Amino acid sequence: xxxxxxxxxxxxxxxxxxxxxxxxxxxxxxxxxxxxxxxxxxxxxxxxxxxxxxxxxxxxxxxxxxxxxxxxxxxxxxxxxxxxxxxxxxxxxxxxxxxxxxxxxxxxxxxxxxxxxxxxxxxxxxxxxxxxxxxxxxxxxxxxxxxxxxxxxxxxxxxxxxxxxxxxxxxxxxxxxxxxxxxxxxxxxxxxxxxxxxxxxxxxxxxxxxxxxxxxxxxxxxxxxxxxxxxxxxxxxxxxxxxxxxxxxxxxxxxxxxxxxxxxxxxxxxxxxx
Length: 274
Known about the structure:
This protein has about 270 residues and is an alpha/beta fold. The chain contains eleven helices and eight strands.
């Protein structure tokens, strides 16, 4: 089954409103005649409205980096799916390893009390994914293992376990709306990249989990992305892998020129797979 590739930029905690708008406009110029894949910009919450306006009428989608599962209420500091829809979001990242408090590099300044600020877990990821779908947002659900877990041979167990819990109760007919991302924690922001063939193997395993959880039809529709130190130099090689449907890009998406190169190289490689 042919799945339209998706290239999503995760700007994380970067960019003022002016910087975000400038980057979005520059990307639009670089990809003005591009087709054959979907592109999304997941901006910080403070810039969502302005970036949405900058992207207005274009083929580039707006995305958020997190949400809360209630529509409104006494939840200080949270952002609801209704609010994200209101500013024009189509996508929302859910369960990124950094939101779960799982980082590729150890930070000795983050003691257990400080780490509680990163509160996502399997249960909250599932609740947020359900809320996103209810409100017509497309969740990009992230899973991945730490270096310690990989060295212990636990990659498949960790990734499958996270994914099974994330998919609980999600509609089987939601295959067109759900996106999954394999982001090995040890490769995020570290410069370390998972070998493309290994990323392909893990993502193939993830598709089997989807088939068991939501059915074979959904497994054939759901797009599975790779993320973790993606660059213009390795994007094409990663996208040559037949199970990988796109890329979730962090640091290399902060510059329009760099991200545009990733999109073009990745889309070209995907077309070449036949």
